[in-house]
Design brief:
The structure holds two protein chains of two kinds. Chain A is an all-alpha fold. In chain A, about 65% of the residues lie in helices and about 0% in strands. The longest helix of chain A has 19 residues, at about 150-170. A seven-stranded antiparallel beta sheet of chain B has the order 1-2-3-4-7-6-5, with helices on both faces. The chains are: A mainly alpha, B alpha+beta.
């Protein structure tokens, strides 16, 4: 193991507060308890191994989530998710963020179960930005580091994912796999 | 969609607290005069809260946490095969191992207690975030308070019949605080009082609810200024008080003291 004895304490101090969030995010990505556990274990292993390369005073949370996401993307489920839903290049551009109030009310007033079902219904790659923004309360810059995309892309992804959620809750469409592509 | 051409397209950035500080201030002032933007921002904030509640869905298994803790400390982790869940130990159990099992049980109980504390902390953090959301959502709304009055003898009776308890408000004469008004707030379907106080150019929220386990707040007095808000919470006569705002910690502490000695 690469980490030096002295760095264990520092790693524990930084990593353990993120444990619950990492597991929650891993479950949303993998959609399977066993796989999520493996993802978290692998993330901790990789992070500890590469801890000496982590630059102090930079964003450790983004670093950990990025390792987790990259680990997921190279897993069988992750590869399948990437193949199933190829992000639309048009969506990668910065698009104006609009917000339709009647639809948004459907989202705001949805029950927790309905929202969870709607999030479940989104393809993996279409739920990660909004989860990082709204659940993990990450800043756009931080999300950009996790997803390895520009900040403008983060903004348009969040807008798109919120829009899909609103539409699903408003019962306008069912978004699954390939049909998520507009 | 808001028809306001000035701010259209930036509402989400405001709600996500991503606008530069001067623009945040400007937008906040704009909200007071633009019902379109105010309702759009309010809907978006509420939907963010809804997604946050729904997204915090999965709790990690205790043994995984214990293993990661061992791992982070550089200690050998207990074998934890997520796929296999090796249970050989159970099959090899014999009576002569009882002391080992007793020790293991004690260790598990200690671990469970630790996890309970950790889970409570996490729940508390969520509760704190939800109160911060209530504060921000109310201030972003076109009507932050339902009863507008600086007179405590007007505000307190207004809550009669609206919430299932009563409370005392302090006399604010000769203090730097002013009462702005109040509204009924709901936290986990439980009605409570949301009072808004003014301090210089800041607004401070005071939430009062019956102290139930559902509130999942720290047991007694608790202060937090790790986020952009300063927060204090305590229990008093069966009621849970939560005070938060972007005023400095000394101001929040001073208002806390006034509330604690209100008669």
């Amino acid at each position: 193991m690469k980490a030096q004895t002295g760095s264990y304490g520092e790693f524990e101090r930084l990593a353990m507060p993120l444990f619950d969030s990492l597991y929650n995010f891993a479950r949303w990505l993998a959609q399977d308890a066993t796989e999520a556990e493996d993802l978290v274990q692998e993330t901790f292993k990789k992070a500890l191994h590469g801890f000496s390369s982590f630059v102090p005073d930079t964003d450790f949370r983004a670093w950990m989530f990025r390792i987790l996401r990259n680990t997921f993307l190279t897993s069988r489920t992750g590869l399948r998710a990437k193949l199933t839903v190829e992000l639309d290049p048009a969506d990668e551009e910065t698009t104006p963020v609009t917000w339709e109030t009647p639809e948004s009310l459907a989202l705001a007033s949805a029950t927790r179960e309905a929202l969870q079902a709607a999030l479940d219904g989104l393809p993996v790659m279409y739920r990660e930005a909004v989860l990082l923004c709204d659940v993990e309360e990450m800043k756009y810059q931080e999300i950009a580091q996790v997803l390895s995309v520009p900040v403008g892309t983060v903004m348009s992804r969040i807008a798109r994912e919120r829009k899909l959620l609103r539409q699903m809750l408003a019962g306008e469409r069912s978004v699954r796999s390939g049909s998520a592509r507009k | 969609m808001t028809n306001c051409s000035t701010w259209q397209g930036r509402v989400a950035s405001y709600v996500d607290a991503e606008l530069p500080l001067p623009e945040m201030e400007a937008f906040r002032e704009h909200l007071a005069t633009c019902p379109d933007c105010a309702s759009t921002a309010l809907a978006l904030m509420e939907s963010k809260m809804a997604v946050r509640r729904a997204g915090n869905r999965y709790a990690a298994p205790p043994e995984l946490r214990a293993n990661m803790l061992h791992f982070a400390k550089g200690e050998p982790a207990v074998a934890h095969n997520a796929a296999g869940r090796d249970r050989e130990g159970y099959r090899n159990f014999t009576a002569r191992h009882w002391t080992g099992w007793a020790l293991a049980t004690a260790a598990l109980l200690l671990l469970a207690a630790g996890l309970f504390v950790a889970a409570n902390r996490r729940q508390s953090a969520k509760a704190v975030a939800e109160f911060a959301d209530l504060h921000v959502t109310a201030l972003a709304s076109a009507n932050p308070v339902e009863v507008v009055s600086t007179d405590r003898h007007t505000v307190k009776p207004w809550f009669q019949g609206r919430i299932p308890f009563t409370f005392d408000l302090p006399d604010l004469q000769a203090t730097p605080f002013t009462l702005v008004g109040g509204r009924v707030a709901y936290f986990h379907q439980e009605p409570g009082a949301h009072l808004v106080f003014g301090y210089q150019r800041h607004f401070i929220s005071v939430f009062i609810f019956r102290d139930t386990p559902q509130l999942a707040m720290p047991a007694s007095f608790f202060a937090d200024n790790t986020s952009s808000f300063t927060l204090r919470t305590w229990t008093q006569q069966g009621l849970r008080y939560v005070i938060l705002g972007d005023a400095n910690a000394a101001a929040i502490a001073s208002l806390t003291e006034l509330l604690q000695h209100a008669r």
